[in-house]
Amino acid sequence: SKPIVAIVGRPNVGKSTLFNALAGENISIVKDTPGVTRDRIYADISWLNYNFTLIDTGGIEPDSGDVILSRMREQAQIAIETADVIIFLVDVRQGLVDADFQVADMLRRSQKPVVLAVNKVDNYDKFLADTYEFYNLGLGDPHPVSANSKLGFGDLLDEVVENC
Ligand code: GDP
Ligand code: MG
Question: Which residues bind GTP 1 (predicted)?
């Protein structure tokens, strides 16, 4: 069956925006709507000759608790268990934060292929230099994208399907 690609990352980094932009239609809800997002987190994506299923883990509801970090860890764990490739999404505007390191540690230990995408790079002249700090996550090359402006998708998807 088709490979599964999961988007993981902190709240508000743009997971749902990226998911919707890649899926090409609004099949995920951008704002959290408890009880509604559950069936809207999957999309079938085609890129070149590849087909894969994309999952927005931000729409996965936690079993318990609503502390952001524990919820993120739970979503990352589900991605590790189900996905063939993980897109780890971070936010160039907020920069590197501790929660990014914690999730990066989980992903690195899982030994699953991880593609690091740095979102909100709407303007390369302004933000590209700021993407280099994400090398510190130890997950390889940061791929600049703008989910809003649909920039950087080609390079990102090339890297994803190479790892499928
Ligand atoms: P999620 O919580 O990770 O699913 O994040 P959302 O997709 O809900 O996006 C959170 C906020 O970031 C929203 O206000 C989006 O409009 C904004 N956002 C998402 N992608 C981009 C982007 O590429 N550039 C900018 N400037 N804002 C973005
Ligand atoms: Mg979301």
Answer: 9-16, 56-60, 119-122
